[in-house]
From TrEMBL:
Keyword Transferase tagged: yes
Protein name: Hexosyltransferase
Main location: Golgi
Organism: Takifugu flavidus (sansaifugu)
InterPro entries: Glyco_trans_31 (IPR002659)
Pfam families: Galactosyl_T
Annotated spans, Disordered: 60-91
């Protein structure tokens, strides 16, 4: 009898629970909609229902310490994310409406210029954009040995997921802290922008590792990711020592990367270090079919030495110098080349390291070498791998019983033989 009664009560509880769940989700959606109507998109719902009492308290504290400081209608970081003791200035790029530079339309080179570049040239002067998602706290407290920043677009959710589980996993290795951030723009028009934006905000609430700026995430806008990141880094990351910057479709051997850093530090060659797959004496591609096609009207010289954007390592010291130098360099539609131009302005050249394979292990896609874990074990970076390939290769390379004939050190003179 007693038993039966209990069962009945449980039977009642279940529908009650699911009913309240439905109610809560309804409230969440409603709040999201309200926030959007108010035009406070970047102050995403985190403020309204993600913030617990502790975070609300610290938020109030911050408010008091910064009287009248940017209520950040658009562009500033949500106050909740700023450490209460911090006294740093905040992201100041508030201009939402950077209008086209109509004066270039009348130039005759503009009229000759390939249509594809019109948009780029008209908006070339728009450099810094408001932030939709920011994490000023990310490298604020204490020293970060290595900051991993990864260019991604909203749709590549599975690649970010794979990176978080593999080489981009935040952790401390022998006292050296590794922190990871993804760099994103806003959805390009014509896509389901509103829903994509909601998805990325949701993902960021879970992981807290997305930096997003309010410019369209297009190929020619990748350079905006470069300059906005450099400015962001200069502002928020005083305690970072090294930066790895790369794509979301690469394999990185984090262990070898850390070893390379150690080697550079020991050799006292770390201050102005920028290492990667360096391309010397390249010339602009004039084949109109190519993704990298550059018309003569836009650029008519050989390129300075630059590193393939698939991934490279640089010191924080150099990143800060690059930020200053970049402000005097006109934006260029190919981000890797743009960075090379900034280095050139500093009278520096990137260093070649054969451990960075931004064009893959061999150029032949079907080559069995591309599936050979021992190669991945001795390299630093390999381009390019999809999310599933990355997860698979990562677990194979990290198997205890993987036996490779020879573990080549990253500073083995033979492997590190420079090509210049
Ligand atoms: C914040 O920094 C500014 C400039 O560095 C300084 O003048 C000011 O006193 C600081 N404020 C606080 C509350 O520490
Ligand atoms: C943006 O700026 C242009 C030129 O200054 C102006 O004509 C336009 O109305 C502005 N748009 C918005 C949405 O403010
Ligand atoms: C870059 O983004 C800005 C801001 O969203 C946009 O106005 C511009 O057209 C984009 N440029 C290219 C070349 O896609």
């Amino acid at each position: 009898m007693d038993n039966l009664f209990r069962r009945k009560r449980i039977g009642l509880l279940k529908p009650l629970l699911s009913l309240s769940l439905v109610f809560v989700s309804f409230l969440m959606i409603h709040k999201l909609k309200l926030a959007e109507k108010d035009g406070v998109r970047q102050k995403h719902a985190g403020e309204t229902y993600w913030c617990d009492t502790e975070c609300l308290a610290s938020k109030k504290g911050v408010g008091k310490n910064h009287p009248g400081s940017e209520s950040s209608v658009l562009g500033g970081e949500p106050d909740a994310q700023r450490p209460p003791t911090g006294n740093r200035s905040s992201w100041d790029a508030q201009v939402l409406n950077c209008s086209e530079d109509a004066s270039v339309r009348s130039r005759d080179w503009f009229q000759r210029l390939d249509q594809r570049f019109h948009q780029f040239v008209l908006y070339r002067h728009c450099r810094y954009f408001p932030m939709l998602l920011n994490h000023p706290e990310k490298c604020a407290d204490g020293e970060v040995h290595l900051l991993m920043v990864i260019k991604s677009i909203i749709e590549q959710h599975d690649r970010r997921e794979a990176v978080r589980k593999t080489w981009g996993k935040e952790r401390t290795v022998d006292g050296r802290k590794i922190t990871t951030l993804f760099l994103l723009g806003s959805p390009a028009s014509g896509k389901d922008a509103k829903n994509l934006q909601k998805l990325i905000e949701y993902e960021d609430r879970i992981y807290g590792d997305i930096l997003q700026w309010d410019f369209m995430d297009t190929f020619f806008n990748l350079t905006l990711k470069e300059v906005n990141f450099l400015k962001w880094f200069d502002l928020y990351c005083p305690g970072v020592r090294f930066i790895f910057k790369g794509d979301d479709d690469v394999f990185v051997n984090t262990h070898n990367l850390l070893e390379l850093i150690d080697f550079k530090v020991e050799a006292r060659k770390e201050a102005d270090m920028l290492v990667g797959d360096t391309i010397f004496k390249a010339i602009p591609i004039r084949n109109r079919q190519s993704k990298y096609y550059i018309p003569r009207e836009l650029y008519d010289k050989p390129y300075p030495p630059y590193v393939g954007g698939g991934g490279f390592l640089m010191s924080a010291h150099l990143a800060r110098r690059l930020y200053v130098a970049s402000e005097d360099v006109e934006l260029y539609p190919i981000d890797d080349v743009f960075l090379g131009m900034c280095l050139e302005a500093l009278k520096l050249a990137p260093e070649m390291h054969p451990g960075f394979r931004t064009f893959g292990i061999t150029k032949q896609k079907v080559s069995p070498m591309n599936n050979e874990p021992c190669f991945y074990k001795q390299l630093i970076l390999v381009h390019k791998l999809g999310a599933e390939e990355l997860l698979r290769m990562w677990s194979v390379v990290h198997q205890e019983d993987l036996v490779c004939a020879k573990k080549t050190s990253v500073h083995d003179p033979q492997l590190a033989k420079s090509s210049h």
